[in-house]
Amino acid sequence: MKLYLNKYNEVNKNILLDLKDFKFKEEIDSVNIDSFGFYDLLGEKKVGFTSINENLFLFIEEVCYKLDIDSKVDYKRKDDFAYFSITQKNNSCELKYSFEEPLSTLGYSESDEDSDLGLWIFNLLNSPEKIKFFKEYNNIYIDNFVAPAVP
Predict the structure, then answer these.
(1) Which end of the chain has less Cβ packing within 10 Å, N or C?
(2) 24 contact partners, CB below 8 Å, separation of at least 6
């Protein structure tokens, strides 16, 4: 089972995610691929986010987190770094990475969320309306997909 994720804020870049071992495979430049969700580098780690069978999933390198009521995702900025973390049961993972300032020109301005996948995921998970919208447009149904146990 494989799934394509779209690079956050880049229309024509995709990555293949193998759902058997949760490994990110090759990146592909194409606008003709059905992708469900997003990915980006947060520091040195590839991070993916999608909805499968109406459940939200966060992928950090080869680890898959099924997000549920017991999942805690946090985000903060300090000095020149962003800190994105997930905690489930007794397991946690924190990513520290530098972030790009939003693009701003005379006729166009990005928000902080437009240039930072970690902030975007954090904001989405704290908004029932955004979760509903994301699932409506990014959910994929995969027969026989079994979510992994909490790492």
Answers:
(1) N
(2) 15, 16, 17, 18, 39, 46, 48, 59, 61
The DSSP code for 50 is E
| Predicted structure pTM score | 0.86
Residues comprising the chain, all counted: 151
Rounded to whole angstroms, the Cα distance separating 32 from 127 reads 30
Q: What is the pLDDT along the chain (151 residues), one digit of tens a residue?
A: 788 898 988 878 899 998 888 889 988 887 667 888 999 999 999 999 999 999 999 999 888 899 988 899 999 999 889 999 999 887 899 999 997 765 555 554 455 555 689 999 999 999 999 999 999 988 888 888 877 766 5
**Summary count for the chain: helices (H), strands (E):** 2, 11
Q: How far apart are CA 102 and CA 111, in angstroms?
A: 6
Helices (H), ranges, 11-127: 117-125
- One DSSP character per residue, 74-100 reads EEEEETTEEEEEEEETTEEEEEEEE-P
Nearest to 59 by CA among 9, 13, 3, 97: 3
CA 108 to CA 131: how far, in whole Å? 26
